[in-house]
């Protein structure tokens, strides 16, 4: 089945030739007319996927605890910007604000709240969710619009939605993977002429078989540099949570989700969420190169448990019915469970700060 965006992409390919995976990725999510985040409701059971904040209030509450701890380690400054990049429906921010208000009233009263969101449709949902805080919230289309000053920043499932480029091993070296048209007018993958600097490859690159894919993400590097440069200049901490791998390696991680099921990435452009795994080693290299302090990384399950997830879940379940207790236990397992396919293991967490801080739960246990 063709989609309006597929027709637009095909016209563009006929006019200008094959497009890179990165350009295809960007159009699928952000095309002004037919982009996924411009036209769809991605979150929840009626959408295409469920994020951690939608699973349970426990997730946002743990992040609120982390932000209070980071603020205290920074010396409890009076004028702080609490920033979320890609705030979804605003659910996580609402849960964070509730905890911050309870644990650190001075932080809650003195901070300003900033949401970085490019989608007008999602901004509308955020205004509904955060209606009681609306007078304190400023919305921005770009992170660099956030006013100067120390910042506590959170980015949950942000980097996976930033486009990647893909390169394929051939007998002549790595060549860029592109999207083109078959004779029957179907979108398909092919190889372009652009090569890849061998210095970017993990070793041993020579021994991997032909057809092996390597992914690079210059747009993600740029976003990470922007965050770190801000922290270096003005102070603060950024917490980054996403699904991905801690060590740079080979492999095709490009995937699409539609109706809570995997979908071929070229099948429904503009009507499926397009993502790929985040290379946390690469983000760490960028952070260290910018001169900020790196905390982590670790699995999401270890991170949440280190912040007191189990204890908070037990308190939340106290006095509840057996059915409610079962639901809370199931949410904890989804958020922090270990094993193949579970968020606690698939998702990774790092934090960067300036000046250097040793932030719990990243701090080594003696």
UniProtKB/TrEMBL annotation:
Coiled coil: none annotated. One of its GO terms (biological process) is methylation. InterPro entries: NDUFAF7, NDUFAF7_sf, SAM-dependent_MTases_sf. Keywords: Methyltransferase, Transferase. This is Class I SAM-dependent methyltransferase. It holds the Pfam family Methyltransf_28. It comes from the Bacteria. The lineage of its organism: Bacteria, Pseudomonadati, Pseudomonadota, Alphaproteobacteria, Hyphomicrobiales. It comes from Pseudorhizobium halotolerans. GO terms for molecular function: methyltransferase activity.
């Amino acid at each position: 089945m063709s989609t309006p965006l597929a027709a637009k992409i095909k016209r563009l390919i006929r006019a200008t030739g094959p497009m890179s995976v990165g350009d295809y990725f960007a159009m699928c999510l952000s095309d002004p007319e037919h982009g996924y985040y411009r036209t769809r409701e991605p979150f929840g059971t009626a959408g295409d996927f469920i994020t951690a904040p939608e699973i349970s209030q426990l997730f946002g509450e743990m992040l609120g605890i982390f932000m209070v701890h980071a603020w205290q380690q920074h010396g409890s400054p009076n004028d702080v910007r609490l920033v979320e990049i890609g705030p979804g429906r605003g659910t996580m921010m609402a849960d964070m604000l509730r905890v911050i208000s309870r644990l650190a009233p001075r932080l809650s009263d003195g901070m300003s709240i900033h949401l970085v969101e490019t989608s007008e449709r999602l901004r509308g949902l955020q205004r509904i969710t955060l209606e009681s805080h609306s007078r304190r919230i400023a919305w921005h289309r770009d992170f660099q619009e956030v006013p100067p000053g120390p910042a506590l920043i959170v980015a949950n499932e942000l980097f996976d939605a930033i486009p990647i480029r893909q390169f394929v091993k051939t007998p002549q070296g790595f060549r860029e993977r592109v999207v083109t048209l078959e004779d029957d007018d179907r979108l398909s993958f092919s190889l372009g002429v652009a090569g890849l600097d061998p210095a970017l490859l993990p070793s041993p690159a020579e021994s991997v078989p032909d057809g092996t894919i390597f992914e690079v993400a210059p747009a993600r590097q740029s976003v990470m540099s922007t965050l770190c440069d801000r922290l270096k200049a003005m102070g603060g901490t950024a917490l980054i949570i996403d699904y991905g791998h801690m060590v740079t390696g080979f492999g095709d991680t490009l995937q699409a989700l539609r109706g809570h099921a995997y979908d071929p990435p070229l099948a429904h452009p503009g009507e499926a969420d397009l993502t790929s795994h985040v290379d946390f080693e690469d983000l760490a290299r960028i952070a260290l190169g910018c001169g900020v302090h790196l905390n982590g990384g670790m699995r999401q399950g270890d991170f949440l448990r280190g912040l007191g997830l189990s204890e908070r879940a037990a308190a939340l379940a106290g006095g509840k019915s057996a059915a409610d207790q079962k639901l809370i236990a199931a949410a904890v397992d989804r958020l922090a469970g270990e094993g193949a396919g579970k968020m606690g293991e698939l998702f990774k967490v790092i934090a960067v700060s300036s000046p250097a801080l040793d932030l719990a739960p990243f701090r080594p246990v003696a």
